[in-house]
Amino acid sequence: MDSAVARERVLDAAEELFYGRGIQSVGMDAVRGASGVSLKRLYQLFPAKEQLVEAYLERRDGRWRGRLAAFVELRPTPEERILAVFDWLEEWFGEEGFRGCAWINSYGELGATSDRVAAQVRAHKRAFADYLASLVAAAGRPAALAGPLFLLAEGAMVTAGITRSTRPAAEAREAARLLLDPR
Amino acid sequence: MDSAVARERVLDAAEELFYGRGIQSVGMDAVRGASGVSLKRLYQLFPAKEQLVEAYLERRDGRWRGRLAAFVELRPTPEERILAVFDWLEEWFGEEGFRGCAWINSYGELGATSDRVAAQVRAHKRAFADYLASLVAAAGRPAALAGPLFLLAEGAMVTAGITRSTRPAAEAREAARLLLDPR
DNA sequence: ACAGGGGGAGAACGTGCGTTCTCCGGGTGG
DNA sequence: CCACCCGGAGAACGCACGTTCTCCCCCTGT
């Protein structure tokens, strides 16, 4: 098996397991079993578990933001694009196996012990906040709107994860609409 | 040493350690060392670590909501009381050793593996949401306001924890003010 | 004074897991 | 055909940690 293919299989398995059950409760042996890649090769690709965790978060970051941006760009106007973020959250929350925000969960699990994981979580959240800010700027709205929209989105992610419901997305969207169009 | 005193010492130590470093990375031996209570007694009081974790979350829940309510009740009018929640969050975020919301963190760490912890997190968040709803009702505002305020507060807690900043509280407060007083 | 027992200190035990090592088969170049 | 080596399977190792056990001191009641 090609090295690149093995790497992808390992990351696929790691993502499913880490996201679904938490990082600390998944052993490297489970990653091996789910990926079909032997421990020897696994450790050649990722010399320690922490590096596998980093690679998992990094690849998921790219995909997550890519999916969001692709969804948002389908909307024609800048105003609609801002609200589309919350529509996408609702879709995401409704997906089978949704278990909250991978970065918030990882931060709860490892933020206090692993600086690298903590830094990656901060980078991901900063990127998401910056993306929201860019949408707000593109719509010609005051930059101060971006912060509250970000907080609504974060609150919705946490709450959807804990309550296993898609409803927070709709609530957040409605609040965002009110902030954008004060009556 | 009295049993009740030992119990309090154990819970004090557990709270400091679990909240500060995460639950899984704190061994029972560390709790013993920090509390000065022998392992034998510790296991008489809490027959397993999970029960200590539950007791920690439960005691913290009572104290947390008590502190919030006490702060809020200092404000004379129902409108001010709603915003006071965010003022209190800002104070809390600024405290030495603040590391985000203990329940959100615990959920990230154990939500997928421990049903009892997950249930306790849900109960705590429901209680907080209900409290916000009661403040909204007392102010004679539409009940639909409570959800967004809750999401803002949750988003602020997560973001303050990750970024180690008190700023999200002020942002959330300002957004809450706009939702309450649309111009 | 002394028998008894509750509690402290910490060793011991079992398990899980991150990481490494061993062994072996099978493909490859000469 | 044969030496060689890459990679797979999984045993082995070391450590951490949850939990239990042992030993002993000290307090108490008589």
Automatic annotation (TrEMBL), chains A, B:
Taxonomic superkingdom: Bacteria
GO molecular function: DNA binding
Recorded coiled-coil stretches: none
InterPro entries (alphabetical): Homeodomain-like_sf, HTH_TetR, Tet_transcr_reg_TetR-rel_C_sf
Keywords: DNA-binding, Transcription, Transcription regulation
The HTH tetR-type domain, residue ranges: 4-64
Sequence intervals crossing the membrane: none
Record feature DNA-binding region, as residue ranges: 27-46
PANTHER family linked: HTH-TYPE TRANSCRIPTIONAL REGULATOR YJDC, TRANSCRIPTIONAL REGULATORY PROTEIN
Identification of the protein by name: TetR family transcriptional regulator
Originating species: Streptomyces pseudovenezuelae
